## 1
Amino acid sequence: MKLFESLAIAIRSLLANKLRSALTMLGIIIGVGAVIALMSVGRGAQAAVTSTFEQMGSNVIFVQPRNPEAPGMLGISQAFATPSLNLDDAKALADIPSVLGVAPTNENFVEVAFGDESVYVLINGSTPAYQQVHNHTLASGQFISERDVAGRDTVVVLGAKVAEDLFGSDDPVGQKVKIKGRSFTVIGVQEPEGGTFMGFSLDDVAVVPITTFQSRLFTQQTVRGEAAVQSIGVQVSSAGAIDGVTKEIETILRKRHRIDPDEKDDFDVISMEQMMGMLQQVTGIFTIFLGAIAGISLVVGSIGIMNIMLVSVTERTREIGIRKAVGAKRRDILLQFLLEAAMLSLVGGGIGIIGGWLVSKVISLVDIGGMTIHSVVSPDIVILAISVSIFIGLASGIYPAMRAARLNPIDALRYG
């Protein structure tokens, strides 16, 4: 019964000072809303990474050049690597048992133009196996062929968004586009992928024969003077065969590159599962970082609650003395002020959750350069926000409540 009495007194006290209570809750509202919105964006990024890799398949291995002297971390060893792979390396890997397809690939950013329209895209130079290895399908036309690769033909397959931006609803197959001042014939259009990879839309791409890429667009050579390949995608028959194929790849390439037993590899072999794990770890850290930044406003909100509760204790000193004089015990006073602090935090947290959810939905609708971030408000984020708001209310109210409970009733009655 005393709990309900204390709750009623707490509600009356908060309603008696509506503006002050609202301003006190504002810090918690902003803090919880920011936590919900920012962590939802981080979770959305994680979900996008997982979805993209699942779409590309888990039975794909990537071989990339690396700097033997650089740390073996994803991206670092490749960033400072001297080109070491070539087309013959890719052909040698095709003979490994359990390998279904090998797609050597070069990529770069380039402007593709048609008439007065132009777009910047990620252009990939590859072989016919690219379509199978990367699980792409065509909406119209055909993909590049071995004949296109052998003849270094100026043909291109456009991503769905590229075709839409340049040609609208018209069929671009057979039309001519300009790439680095050269005329390319559009022979196919990919089906919409709808995902992103490394922050870039999978529909904002174009594919040309790798020999055309090497000779007509972006020339790059290995230390041995051969046309360089930036990466080699290897599709394996099953996820269980990845370890065996990885060892075969390492053996073949070490032999081809004449690497001595005591020397480090000048290439990296990374499975899709490893890449997904590394990128998920990065996005996970990113999510925690965003949550920590938003948590600063929660700390500010808790300070605001503590400050107002101390002011409330001072203002109601005489009331506390009267309650003690008529029989209220120390724990009753303690409970009353704790309930007031908890209610401020809990109501503010509830409003913050709704606000954060709405903000995250708005973020999902925002188009940034043709890309959208689909935020994910998961139950654990909401539970975390509610738990933190309750904890903050109790933690920030404990000292003012204890101070009120310790007041001497005689001194309290004399106050004011």
Note: The chain has a mean pLDDT of 81.
## 2
Amino acid sequence: MKLLAAILLPLICLADPTPSVDSLIESTRTVPPEFAADALIRLAALDSVAQAQKIELLQRAFDLAGAAQEPYKRRAAISRFGGPAGFLNRVYSQDLDGLSLRLRAVSAMLAVDRQKATAVFLRIPPLQLPAVSCTEFMVPDVGRFYEVLGSLLAAETLTAKDLERFAGAVDSAAEIPGAARAIAAAKLSDADFGRAIAAFTGALGKTSGDDRTFTHYAAAGRQIEVLVEECRKRKISPTPLLENFRAYLVWHLSGKRCADDELQMPIGAISSFATPEEADAQAADAANFFNQHLAVAPVKPIEEVETLPSRQSGTAAGLHACEDTACKGIANQFHDLVFQANGNALQPKDKETAEWHAQLLGFLKSMSEWTQMPEVSPAAYFREKCGVYNDLAGAVPTPAERELVLQALLDFIGRNSFQVKNRLEWFLPANGLIGRAALDPVGLARITELLRKSSDPVVALFANLEAVAPRTPDKILPLL
């Protein structure tokens, strides 16, 4: 036993001690605001943190979130597995935009102090979502705002008057489903429900926006149907709501449309990013759904002539990946590394040879020499190179080779200036690498050590945070 202790003691002494909560809180002062806010929210969730300190940390996180580089969450309206759309969906799944951070802080505070949580929520500025052009494919995703609003209504710290005010402030297609759900779920008297419906109806009559966002949220009719049924139960006429929703649909359907709207078909349950609206293909055919489920006299069905676009203009740009010569060359090398000449994937035994390992080292050299082409944006270059490293990490057969690949990825992330231009996109590969190491603490112990000792303050903070406030696998896997 003494001999074993003599062997293990030096190893224990050499190991990095788990950082203290106070040291991590202090480290948040040296990183950009969205990273500081995220870390403070995670630390506030620890059982060892006293209630007063939890509130202090969450209030500070809420305040820092206002300076986040990205103001609100977005999602790809045109679905693609992989490529820019898939990457950006993962970027925003980190919940590091300003609105998501604020809402996370409010939700966490609700469990500690309902009145303070409500006061903080009411400090969130009006959403005021910008229009999305047809050349863009990312649309706003503010569903969480209305989920938190619903939680505060359920906690009885927000009033029917508050709901009426928020319902009347809706001015984007992205808000309609969430606002409708919040009204339907609220425990309101008939009079209060009537006032909330009147405010929401008035907002619908004034809501006009871009086609990209409208088309993505075209299945909002399903939530309107729920409200209509609730109106009838309460002996409130749904006609004004239906008339204004009809006018909202016709205005968008007969206006300027994006030429690639057919690509925005619902993707259903096959994607973890699908919303309830996207999963309902019938409701997404807005005019037909209205006619079959909502149009009841005196409300007229929508006629075909009312759905004809005034003109079609613009298609989404930037959906394709790896189109330049350098990237295609790397892709071909990667294919040769993991596939046989006949197109079948190499088996693990095929990768145990000295020849294959030499080929791997040659590929890593090519990766290190791969530089950004003039015609390629910094975002595309960064995204594609990190993607290859991640794919390669899943293709190598041994822990030592995996460590070699991930260290190369870490080096690339650490010396990349893209961090300044887009912090959320830069952080996704680092965040995934930290999570990957946490899921394999033995096999990637060396990577964990490098992460915790990184010269980059963001990487070091989150690697050390993982040791104190670890995430569950369901929070990590969507990042990979």
Note: The radius of gyration is 26 Å.
